[in-house]
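Progress note, sequence design subtask.
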């Protein structure tokens, strides 16, 4: 079955629109975030191959505007962006199903950090 999965991933053609902002769900049915960016590499044969999915606030901010890249790097210092290898994707669709359990992926810490260090200073945010 692993061979079939690998073969299917190689033959399918996806656009960025099919993957970006897709929900990430683990094999234990826990939603762990959304795809903020993708990484790909050019192979020697000239093909472009998707290698990993990126999830986190820094990648998301840089999608809003490339001018935010220095600010996003200063604010988050690469602490919360995480890469998930494309080989961890079990099924593509509106929700990307991952092979691992939620504990296998170090995501979700950014929301707590943003609430603790940014949102608590906004009047009426409900965070203290």
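Output:
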């Amino acid at each position: 079955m692993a061979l079939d999965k690998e073969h299917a991933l190689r033959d399918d053609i996806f656009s960025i629109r099919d993957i970006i902002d897709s929900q990430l769900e683990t094999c234990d049915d826990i939603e762990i975030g959304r795809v903020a960016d993708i990484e790909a590499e050019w192979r020697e044969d000239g093909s472009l191959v998707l290698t990993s999915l990126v999830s986190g606030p820094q990648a998301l901010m840089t999608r809003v505007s490339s001018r935010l890249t220095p600010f996003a790097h200063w604010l988050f210092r690469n602490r919360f962006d995480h890469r998930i290898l494309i080989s961890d994707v079990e099924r593509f669709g509106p929700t990307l199903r991952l092979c691992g359990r939620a504990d296998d992926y170090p995501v979700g810490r950014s929301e707590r950090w943003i609430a603790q260090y940014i949102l608590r200073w906004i009047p009426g945010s409900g965070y203290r």
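The longest strand covers residues 48-55. Work on this subtask will continue into the next period as scheduled.
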